[in-house]
Amino acid sequence: MLDPDYAPDGFAVDLGGTKIAAARIVQGQIVARASCATDAHAPPEAQVAVMAELARQVGYQTGAALGVAVAGRIDDRGHWHAVNTGTLSAIVEVPLTDLITRALGPANCMNDAAAAALAEARLGAGRGLRNFGYLTVSTGVGGGFVLGGRLLESRSGLAGHVGFTTAPGADEPCGSGRRGTVESLAGGRALAEAARRAGQVADARTICDAATQGEAWALHIVTVSARAIATLIADLTATLGLDAVAIGGSIGLADGYIDLVRDALDEAPAVFRVPITPAALGTDAPLFGALLRTTDRQGA
Questions:
Q1: Are 254 and 217 in contact (CB under 8 A)?
Q2: At 234, which helix (H) or strand (E)?
Q3: For the chain, percent helix, then strand, then coil, each to nearest 5?
Q4: SS3 10
Q5: Rounded Cα gap, residues 134 and 117, in angstroms
């Protein structure tokens, strides 16, 4: 349970690459949940309909505080763009804020990693820090940053999409269309493709489990991912002056993954090393952050 003096009450929906979740939050605690698998190829109206149904399942009624977090970028007009077309193939400049408002009621819409960063900075691993970073390693790789107490944002909504920056040793394309990115080494699809090249048929979860059990082929794949994330953290620390980084996502929170990232970062000069912690709010961070952003804007 979070400190109710800091965690607002209301509702939140989080649409990720693999799952859509909705929650009712009361006094810092999620008191009702609903979820289903994400249909990566569904048109935007169908995605919104699912989000609306899940919100109603947890008790949402029009007028209540509602935050919405989604994979992809949200520009300053409230339009939704799937930067990684492999994750959400039908999302092209969708007026998400308008669609959500018509389907449910007024809501703030934002990127899911940015929402998680805000929640961790206010309520979790980043409390009390000046410059804080959050990275999610899951189907893809994303991030969010709270600098001097303010969430880093951009008009295009691209700020924080650090999985699409380049990585040493990477050469394959990722879903953004760029070649040689962090995501092309570290994300879930990259892990599955690396397993295929190694003669294995396995998804990211299976690979992480096999690595934990000491299977050499899997440990190599996960270590490559972790080293790419460590290099990214060093680059971000040099650029943004981070005080600490929290890691979330299904791969990022897999057993032993953060230890591999720390081991790789320890090879860098001391000035590039920062504390690395698991996301304190786990997979719920985007839900808390989306609601926080909504209540911030209602109070502005």
A1: no
A2: helix 216-240
A3: 40, 20, 40
A4: strand
A5: 5
B/e letters for 29-38, b = 16+ CB within 10 Å, e = fewer, are ebeeebbeeb
Ordered per-residue pLDDT tens for the chain, 300 residues: 466 556 789 999 999 888 999 999 999 899 999 999 999 899 999 999 999 999 999 999 999 999 999 999 999 999 999 887 777 888 989 999 999 999 999 999 999 999 999 999 999 999 999 999 999 999 889 999 999 999 999 999 999 999 999 999 999 888 888 999 999 999 999 999 999 999 999 999 999 999 999 999 999 999 999 999 999 999 999 999 999 999 999 999 999 999 999 999 999 999 999 999 999 999 999 999 999 999 887 765
φ/ψ (deg, to 5) at 197: -65, -25
Written as one letter, the residue type at 137 is V
Structure tokens at 110: 């934002």
Residue 280 contacts residue 125 (beta carbons within 8 Å):
yes
Structural domains in the chain, CATH included, are 10-115+283-299 (3.30.420.40), 127-279 (3.30.420.40)
Tell me the pairing of strands 73-74 and 80-81.
antiparallel
> Tokens 């209301």 correspond to what residue?
10
Asked if 222 and 260 touch (Cβ cutoff 8 Å), the reply is: yes
Distance CA 260, CA 265 (A): 9
Please state, in angstroms and as integers, the Cα–Cα distance from residue 93 to each residue in 47, 71, 129, following that order: 14, 13, 35
